[in-house]
Amino acid sequence: MEGDCLSCMKYLMFLFNFFIFLGGACLLGLGIWVIVDPTGFREIVAANPLLFTGAYIMLAMGAMLFLLGFLGCCGAIRENKCLLLFFFMFILLIFLAELSAAILAFIFRENLTREFFTKELKKHYQRNNDTDVFSSTWNSVMITFACCGVNGPEDFEAIPHPSYSSLEKATPEACCQRELQSREGMFVNKEACLSGNERFQNRQGCYTVILNSFETYVYLAGALAIGVLAIELFAMIFAMCLFRGIQ
After folding, report:
1. Can you give the residue range of the structural domain that contains 81?
2. Which pLDDT does position 167 carry in this prediction?
3. How many CB atoms are closer than 10 A to CB 157?
4. What average pLDDT does the segment 136-163 reach?
5. Strand partners, 178
6. What total of structural domains would you count in the chain?
7. If we measure between CA atoms, which residue out of 79, 23, 1 comes closest to residue 239?
8. Higher pLDDT, 97 or 165
9. Are residue 67 and residue 132 in the same domain, yes or no?
10. Cα–Cα distance between 112 and 121 in angstroms, integer?
11. pLDDT tier, 168 (very low <50, low <70, confident <90, very high otherwise)
């Protein structure tokens, strides 16, 4: 009976580690996608140091889970106590790190509010100055998502024009409609847009557009994170039980 129980524990341990392996692969793939994604999400991440750091943390965690899932599977099948102990210690460290990251994300969630981005935009945006990282990033986001400002074109009314501009309206070029949503895309009517004709402007704020675009992915990432934490917890329990059962 004890041998059957140990054998069952071994295969359950292998199963949970296989899920950790898959979870690590998913996090690794998601982290790589966030960093290299050409559709504009990388620009949003780069605009906020907290998100930028979080993307690399997710990438590192995915790589570690990928490796540890593999080691856990090997330790379970071969009934190697050293590998099991090594796996338990590192999975515990990762579990605590992920839990800490979740707590920090909850504490600093106010940095992702509409008011925060609006304040930062009005404070740092320099319109068509492509040498400024912040301005260039915001211009790329607005062009890619066909949006304007955080709430709409009114966000730019308090931002001064360049000294060489004689235009009365505050709308930047990045808010003008284009035939193709990229920097190379031709303007539908640039002069009319900059002179204040709303017909040729993107009037919707970027906050709403981006939130709607990535709402599904946010819930998917949250569900994935909860699932990974639960699997890690069970894997640690099975690892310790198997470690104690091996003679």
Report:
1. 1-109+222-245
2. 46
3. 11
4. 80
5. 187
6. 2
7. 79
8. 97
9. no
10. 13
11. very low
- Whether the Cβ atoms of residue 43 and residue 140 lie closer than 8 Å to each other: yes
**How many CA atoms are closer than 13 Å to the CA of 133, on its beta-carbon side?**
7
CA distances from 85 to 2, 3, 22 (A): 21, 21, 21
pTM here? 0.53
Q: What is the pLDDT of residue 166?
A: 45
Residue 217 is assigned to a structural domain of this protein: no
pLDDT above 80: residue 104: no
Structure token digits, residue 111: 């940095």
Claim to verify: residue 72 and residue 120 sit in the same structural domain: no
User: Where are the alpha helices (H) located in 37-48, listed in sequence order?
Assistant: 41-46
**Number of neighbouring beta carbons within 10 Å of residue 216:** 9
Distance CA 233, CA 91 (A): 9
Same domain, 6 and 101: yes
Contact 147, 205 (CB under 8 A): yes
Average model confidence (pLDDT) across the chain: 77
Residue 181 lies in a domain: yes
